[in-house]
């Protein structure tokens, strides 16, 4: 027994000496099995979740090691290190999600795959979402969804729950962008099954009847049936159209992927199953992020009347111009509202809806004198960068004016502003998200005044409002 314990100690000591020599970051791996997870989760439940990182950063430096959710992990709060990890030259870093997420994502999900197929898929989707044709069409679609929802608020005598309302708006837009499903039976079933599916993303990875993971996997099977039917129908229609009048411009992501489809055996082609799975998985990053950004914008503006006043003035001016010229709004009209864009950037900086990304190193990598050994996970903390005094003065203050001198940086992402990630996996929904937020804020501040009830932001496991942000609205025209 003594020999075994001695041997284990010797091995551990040698490993730790080797790691220290080549520069594995300092840090504490905490307790056996749980590591430092309890402190990590406890900080997540406070109003300052980044305190977990700040405490260790002051002890060990900007990059440190710890042990979270069953994994030894290197946490980076250094913008340069994050940039290298995100750029991922040589495909060294692969996404590393917790087990429950991996179980729910398909093997070929864009969120999990690496290398050429991910790059190809990313380029196809990003190219479509950035295209002028798409932007002009989706502007009208988003306006319609926002108007429909906001008009219904007039009839509400009671409280409006912003988080719930914005979820309805953005889900409708998302399924339109992905597969052109309009309000109706399919939309309702998709919403119901998707909600059941994502409940399992953060849960114990135990799969047998009755468990959360099991129920979510069943919901995914039902989703695969609905989306699979839509993709098959569209494939047939695409083939017929091709024969009649050649290929037409794609109207949604299913179209884009179908134009690159083939048999499952074909090396370059994307099969119907592949497209179906990926369309469902693309709903994950798009579904909760935009409504949360909308909700938090309303929250921050409620707490900052000066910014709300300035936002309203800018948007009222545009509304007046449009009424006088009887013109439609374009994507550029919304993007040209400079203060509105500042409000959106500031919201994204403070909200940290995606607080960082997890990767795993496929080989030893040295960045800025720090070694990330093969097989280790690395967490690039975006929150730490966004809430760092070195990058933003008074980081806990909602100050949209701070972006006046950083306008281009905000729109394009910089190493100290990465709400949409960066490098190879920079969010392809970036422009669409900014458009949805701009339209929502424009219609909201030019139609209503509101008073919000007391509510709190919860940061764990994902960012949410404790009470879904209840507000009482008064129509501006009736004031
Ligand atoms: C405020 C809203 C949003 C935020 C903050 C956000 C944030 C992010 C971040 C940080 C990543 C990088 C993940 C990584 O590196 O592993 C990402 C990836 C992604 N996002 Fe978004 N996102 C938003 C909206 C959307 C929307 C509306 C869509 C869909 C239309 C979307 C689709 C995607 C996809 C498909 C990826 C994966 C890209 C890849 O791995 O190649 N996102 N998003």
TrEMBL record:
It is a single-pass membrane protein. InterPro entries: Cyt_P450, Cyt_P450_CS, Cyt_P450_E_grp-IV, Cyt_P450_sf. It is found in: Endoplasmic reticulum membrane. It comes from the Eukaryota. Heme binds at residue 427. PROSITE patterns: CYTOCHROME_P450 (PS00086). Signal peptide: none annotated. GO terms for molecular function: 22alpha-hydroxysteroid 23-monooxygenase activity; heme binding; iron ion binding; oxidoreductase activity, acting on paired donors, with incorporation or reduction of molecular oxygen, NAD(P)H as one donor, and incorporation of one atom of oxygen. Its cofactor is heme. Pathway: Hormone biosynthesis; Plant hormone biosynthesis; brassinosteroid biosynthesis; Steroid biosynthesis. Its EC number is 1.14.14.147. It catalyses: (22S,24R)-22-hydroxy-5alpha-ergostan-3-one + reduced [NADPH--hemoprotein reductase] + O2 = 3-dehydro-6-deoxoteasterone + oxidized [NADPH--hemoprotein reductase] + H2O + H(+); 3-epi-6-deoxocathasterone + reduced [NADPH--hemoprotein reductase] + O2 = 6-deoxotyphasterol + oxidized [NADPH--hemoprotein reductase] + H2O + H(+). Keywords: Brassinosteroid biosynthesis, Heme, Iron, Lipid biosynthesis, Lipid metabolism, Membrane, Metal-binding, Monooxygenase, Oxidoreductase, Steroid biosynthesis, Transmembrane, Transmembrane helix. One of its GO terms (biological process) is stamen development. Gene3D superfamilies: Cytochrome P450. Pfam families: p450. Belongs to the cytochrome P450 family. This is 22alpha-hydroxysteroid 23-monooxygenase. It comes from Rhamnella rubrinervis. The lineage of its organism: Eukaryota, Viridiplantae, Streptophyta, Embryophyta, Tracheophyta.
